[in-house]
Amino acid sequence: MKRLLLTLLLSFSVPSLGQLIFDGNTGTTGVQNGAGVWDTGTANWWSPTLLSNTTWNDGLAQFGSSSSAVGGTITVNSAINATGLDFLPLSAAPTTTNQAYHFSGTGSLNLTGPAPIINIGNLSTSGSSTAVSAVNFLLPVNASNLTIQKNSGTAIGFVRFTANNTGLTGLLTLKGDAGGIFLGFGSQPHSRSRGIQFCGATDGDGCHLQRAFSHCRRWRHDQLGSHPHGL
Question: What is the pTM of this model?
Fold first, then answer.
Protein backbone atom coordinates (compact mmCIF):
# COMPACT_ATOMS: atom_id res chain seq x y z
CA MET A 1 0.00 0.00 0.00
CA LYS A 2 2.82 2.45 0.88
CA ARG A 3 4.56 1.66 -2.40
CA LEU A 4 1.33 2.24 -4.34
CA LEU A 5 0.75 5.57 -2.57
CA LEU A 6 4.28 6.72 -3.41
CA THR A 7 3.74 5.80 -7.06
CA LEU A 8 0.53 7.82 -7.19
CA LEU A 9 2.18 10.86 -5.61
CA LEU A 10 5.01 10.79 -8.12
CA SER A 11 2.59 10.49 -11.03
CA PHE A 12 0.88 13.73 -10.00
CA SER A 13 4.05 15.79 -9.55
CA VAL A 14 4.14 19.41 -10.80
CA PRO A 15 4.89 19.52 -14.56
CA SER A 16 8.01 21.17 -15.93
CA LEU A 17 7.56 24.90 -16.45
CA GLY A 18 9.29 24.82 -19.83
CA GLN A 19 9.80 28.19 -21.48
CA LEU A 20 8.72 31.31 -19.64
CA ILE A 21 7.69 34.70 -21.11
CA PHE A 22 8.76 37.95 -19.45
CA ASP A 23 5.75 39.87 -18.10
CA GLY A 24 6.17 43.63 -17.85
CA ASN A 25 2.92 44.07 -15.89
CA THR A 26 2.08 41.30 -13.45
CA GLY A 27 -1.09 43.12 -12.36
CA THR A 28 -2.78 42.10 -15.62
CA THR A 29 -3.37 38.45 -16.49
CA GLY A 30 -1.23 37.16 -19.33
CA VAL A 31 1.88 38.57 -20.98
CA GLN A 32 2.36 42.34 -21.13
CA ASN A 33 5.32 44.00 -22.81
CA GLY A 34 7.41 46.42 -20.80
CA ALA A 35 10.47 47.05 -18.69
CA GLY A 36 11.38 45.21 -15.50
CA VAL A 37 13.96 43.38 -13.41
CA TRP A 38 15.30 39.94 -14.34
CA ASP A 39 16.43 38.10 -11.22
CA THR A 40 15.76 34.77 -9.54
CA GLY A 41 13.26 36.00 -6.94
CA THR A 42 10.71 38.19 -8.74
CA ALA A 43 7.61 36.41 -10.06
CA ASN A 44 7.43 38.35 -13.33
CA TRP A 45 7.55 35.42 -15.76
CA TRP A 46 4.35 34.11 -17.31
CA SER A 47 4.10 30.32 -17.51
CA PRO A 48 1.90 29.02 -20.37
CA THR A 49 1.78 25.72 -18.45
CA LEU A 50 0.61 27.11 -15.11
CA LEU A 51 -1.32 30.08 -16.62
CA SER A 52 0.15 32.29 -13.90
CA ASN A 53 3.30 34.21 -13.05
CA THR A 54 6.29 32.50 -11.51
CA THR A 55 9.99 33.09 -10.80
CA TRP A 56 12.80 32.47 -13.27
CA ASN A 57 13.73 28.80 -13.83
CA ASP A 58 17.02 28.93 -15.84
CA GLY A 59 15.25 27.69 -19.00
CA LEU A 60 14.34 29.32 -22.32
CA ALA A 61 13.58 33.04 -21.87
CA GLN A 62 10.99 34.56 -24.21
CA PHE A 63 10.30 38.27 -24.62
CA GLY A 64 7.47 40.05 -26.40
CA SER A 65 3.79 39.71 -27.21
CA SER A 66 1.28 41.21 -29.60
CA SER A 67 -0.20 43.30 -26.77
CA SER A 68 1.79 46.37 -27.90
CA ALA A 69 4.66 47.64 -30.06
CA VAL A 70 6.73 48.56 -26.99
CA GLY A 71 9.50 46.34 -25.67
CA GLY A 72 11.41 47.76 -22.73
CA THR A 73 14.66 47.73 -20.76
CA ILE A 74 15.36 44.56 -18.78
CA THR A 75 17.61 45.23 -15.79
CA VAL A 76 19.96 42.41 -14.79
CA ASN A 77 22.04 42.98 -11.64
CA SER A 78 23.27 39.42 -11.05
CA ALA A 79 24.51 36.45 -13.07
CA ILE A 80 21.46 34.98 -14.83
CA ASN A 81 21.45 31.59 -16.54
CA ALA A 82 19.24 30.73 -19.53
CA THR A 83 19.30 28.00 -22.16
CA GLY A 84 18.45 30.53 -24.87
CA LEU A 85 16.62 33.76 -25.75
CA ASP A 86 13.55 33.99 -27.99
CA PHE A 87 12.20 37.39 -29.07
CA LEU A 88 8.58 37.06 -30.12
CA PRO A 89 6.74 39.39 -32.54
CA LEU A 90 5.35 42.65 -31.15
CA SER A 91 2.09 44.10 -32.45
CA ALA A 92 4.20 46.24 -34.82
CA ALA A 93 7.90 46.80 -35.33
CA PRO A 94 9.36 49.13 -32.67
CA THR A 95 10.27 52.66 -33.75
CA THR A 96 12.68 55.25 -32.39
CA THR A 97 10.12 56.06 -29.69
CA ASN A 98 8.93 52.50 -29.02
CA GLN A 99 12.04 50.54 -28.12
CA ALA A 100 12.90 46.95 -28.80
CA TYR A 101 14.07 44.97 -25.77
CA HIS A 102 17.33 46.21 -24.19
CA PHE A 103 19.34 44.48 -21.46
CA SER A 104 21.36 46.52 -18.97
CA GLY A 105 22.64 46.44 -15.40
CA THR A 106 25.62 45.28 -13.38
CA GLY A 107 25.04 41.56 -13.97
CA SER A 108 25.52 39.21 -16.93
CA LEU A 109 23.58 36.78 -19.11
CA ASN A 110 25.00 33.27 -19.22
CA LEU A 111 23.57 31.21 -22.10
CA THR A 112 24.12 27.60 -21.09
CA GLY A 113 24.43 24.40 -23.06
CA PRO A 114 26.72 23.35 -25.91
CA ALA A 115 25.07 25.54 -28.61
CA PRO A 116 22.54 28.11 -27.31
CA ILE A 117 20.32 30.12 -29.68
CA ILE A 118 19.14 33.73 -29.75
CA ASN A 119 16.08 33.79 -32.00
CA ILE A 120 14.82 37.09 -33.44
CA GLY A 121 11.14 36.96 -34.36
CA ASN A 122 9.54 39.06 -37.06
CA LEU A 123 8.56 42.59 -35.86
CA SER A 124 10.64 42.29 -32.68
CA THR A 125 13.17 44.83 -34.04
CA SER A 126 13.15 47.38 -36.84
CA GLY A 127 14.66 49.81 -39.21
CA SER A 128 18.33 50.41 -38.64
CA SER A 129 21.37 49.36 -36.68
CA THR A 130 20.80 52.05 -34.04
CA ALA A 131 20.35 50.96 -30.44
CA VAL A 132 16.78 52.22 -30.14
CA SER A 133 15.35 49.70 -32.62
CA ALA A 134 17.64 46.69 -32.15
CA VAL A 135 17.69 44.04 -29.46
CA ASN A 136 20.63 45.49 -27.55
CA PHE A 137 22.83 43.81 -24.95
CA LEU A 138 24.37 46.54 -22.80
CA LEU A 139 25.85 43.97 -20.41
CA PRO A 140 28.15 40.95 -20.84
CA VAL A 141 26.77 37.87 -22.57
CA ASN A 142 28.59 34.58 -22.01
CA ALA A 143 28.04 31.65 -24.38
CA SER A 144 29.88 28.98 -26.32
CA ASN A 145 29.06 28.22 -29.99
CA LEU A 146 26.22 30.75 -30.05
CA THR A 147 23.71 30.88 -32.92
CA ILE A 148 21.78 34.07 -33.72
CA GLN A 149 18.93 33.38 -36.11
CA LYS A 150 15.90 34.89 -37.84
CA ASN A 151 13.48 32.15 -38.81
CA SER A 152 10.14 33.82 -39.64
CA GLY A 153 8.68 36.80 -41.48
CA THR A 154 10.37 39.10 -43.98
CA ALA A 155 11.81 41.93 -41.87
CA ILE A 156 15.52 42.12 -41.02
CA GLY A 157 16.36 41.26 -37.40
CA PHE A 158 18.70 43.78 -35.72
CA VAL A 159 20.95 42.73 -32.82
CA ARG A 160 23.67 44.69 -31.03
CA PHE A 161 26.29 43.65 -28.47
CA THR A 162 27.42 46.89 -26.85
CA ALA A 163 29.21 45.78 -23.66
CA ASN A 164 32.46 43.87 -23.09
CA ASN A 165 31.63 40.38 -24.37
CA THR A 166 34.87 38.44 -24.09
CA GLY A 167 32.83 35.54 -22.69
CA LEU A 168 31.55 34.63 -26.16
CA THR A 169 33.64 31.65 -27.29
CA GLY A 170 33.57 28.95 -29.94
CA LEU A 171 31.93 29.40 -33.34
CA LEU A 172 29.38 32.19 -33.82
CA THR A 173 26.71 31.19 -36.37
CA LEU A 174 24.36 33.68 -38.05
CA LYS A 175 21.31 32.16 -39.75
CA GLY A 176 19.73 34.68 -42.05
CA ASP A 177 16.52 33.09 -43.32
CA ALA A 178 13.31 35.17 -43.35
CA GLY A 179 14.72 38.66 -43.80
CA GLY A 180 18.23 38.13 -42.49
CA ILE A 181 20.21 39.31 -39.47
CA PHE A 182 22.10 42.58 -38.98
CA LEU A 183 24.59 42.07 -36.17
CA GLY A 184 26.46 45.04 -34.72
CA PHE A 185 29.10 45.47 -32.04
CA GLY A 186 30.13 48.42 -29.91
CA SER A 187 33.67 49.58 -29.24
CA GLN A 188 34.27 47.30 -26.24
CA PRO A 189 36.40 44.11 -26.50
CA HIS A 190 34.49 41.14 -27.84
CA SER A 191 34.66 37.43 -28.38
CA ARG A 192 37.61 35.06 -28.50
CA SER A 193 35.55 33.15 -31.04
CA ARG A 194 37.34 30.69 -33.29
CA GLY A 195 35.26 31.86 -36.24
CA ILE A 196 32.05 33.30 -37.64
CA GLN A 197 29.78 31.22 -39.85
CA PHE A 198 27.16 32.73 -42.16
CA CYS A 199 24.52 30.29 -43.34
CA GLY A 200 20.89 29.63 -44.11
CA ALA A 201 20.13 32.44 -46.54
CA THR A 202 17.77 30.32 -48.65
CA ASP A 203 15.48 33.23 -49.54
CA GLY A 204 18.22 35.46 -50.91
CA ASP A 205 18.54 37.56 -47.78
CA GLY A 206 21.65 37.35 -45.69
CA CYS A 207 23.60 38.18 -42.60
CA HIS A 208 25.36 41.50 -42.20
CA LEU A 209 28.25 41.91 -39.77
CA GLN A 210 28.92 45.50 -38.77
CA ARG A 211 32.11 44.99 -36.72
CA ALA A 212 34.33 41.92 -36.58
CA PHE A 213 35.15 40.20 -33.31
CA SER A 214 38.51 41.48 -32.17
CA HIS A 215 39.90 38.02 -31.44
CA CYS A 216 38.36 36.12 -34.34
CA ARG A 217 40.95 34.14 -36.28
CA ARG A 218 38.70 33.04 -39.15
CA TRP A 219 35.20 33.27 -40.50
CA ARG A 220 33.27 31.07 -42.90
CA HIS A 221 30.92 32.20 -45.64
CA ASP A 222 28.72 29.22 -46.39
CA GLN A 223 25.91 30.23 -48.71
CA LEU A 224 25.02 32.62 -51.51
CA GLY A 225 23.15 35.63 -50.24
CA SER A 226 25.12 35.69 -46.98
CA HIS A 227 27.93 38.19 -46.92
CA PRO A 228 30.14 40.15 -44.55
CA HIS A 229 29.45 43.86 -44.25
CA GLY A 230 31.69 46.59 -42.89
CA LEU A 231 34.66 44.37 -42.01
Answer: 0.79
